[in-house]
Task: structure prediction
Amino acid sequence: MSNRSVARRHLVPWLALAGVLCVVVAVGAAQQRRRNPDVPRPPGLPRVALPDEPLIINTHEIAEIRVVVVTRGLSHPWGMAFLPGGDMLVTERQGRLRMIRDGVLDPEPVDGVPEVLARGLSGLMDVALHPQFAENRLIYLSYTRPLGEREATVALIRGRLDGMALRDVEDVFVAESFGGSTASARIAFAPDGLLYMTVGGSFGTNPEGARAQDPSSHAGKLLRLRDDGSVPDDNPFVGRPGYKPEIFSMGHRNQQGLAFHPETSAPWATEHAVQGGDELNIIESGKNYGWPVVSYGRQYNGPRVTERFWADGMQEPLVFWVPSIAPSGLTFYTGDRFSQWKGNLFVGSLMTGRIGRTGHVERIVFNENGEELAREWLLTELRQRIRDVKQGPDGLLYVLTEANQAALLRLEPVE
Result:
């Protein structure tokens, strides 16, 4: 056993306890307010309006960074993709696909998106371009598909982008029915051209959470597909009875970030736990990442998810967060505009410790062995929920906030 694992196992109970004390108090106060509406609500952190002019912030590695609001007026955006020439596609959870040209949001959505179930965490989620988009114009969308009044599932479609419309839309993958709402379906093409897709919807410890450990369910899994939705022959469970052949890894709760390491091409994914225990994992073929059998988190009302932090045959996270940061999209920075940040990982955060208006972008530094060296919080002064972060083709970082009136931000050097 490594020194890191030993130290982690001794420290984790104390870290988890410290991280959750404020949450237990907050939950108790919330329950009291529900019982007695006359109990005043806490004032909360004040809202901060996004500035009209570029904002200069200071960071550890780079003295000054300029934050620019590219466009406003997005409603609960979820994912983004860069088109050749600089235009952008952005998904909105309610079911709209938006186009941004030269920093201007087109008032009309792209036509051709199928009916979307937008309820709770469900809705239109991610967008990705086919690796040969310049030739075939194919884009992929993940979303929650309604199946009657009470049933829903996660689906993946592709269509040919023709101006402001999707043509020849077809199913690529449809999961089994999940009953009610579902959550998180981040998609990304690997350098080898295969498509990876996270499937959430495995929240409780029993019975819903058990779906993450059920090989006959797509819920709580990372899937690996060809571009037409067929199953690669070398997927780890192909031909194994009782296993969905699309599964690449299992034991996940709700993965909302997915990126490929620029040198190893391994998929890295962020995963929502409950209160504490969010994870960053390096995903390996056929591995089990433990939910809900093992977890560093607690339920929203205080008790531990489980008394086990690790188990034989289950992978420990590379990074975990106590308290929770509600991690969202992530990207490796590989450009030259921020040379001091090259190789760093950037992770979006919706909130910290279940406290509103504490979202941020987290910069994580690793050494050549993939071991964590440092973490830095960026954009905390904006008090925004952060849904996604990506490196653009111009070498700059782009950030989607998450709100009914959300914005696209750009981080650029002060030169």
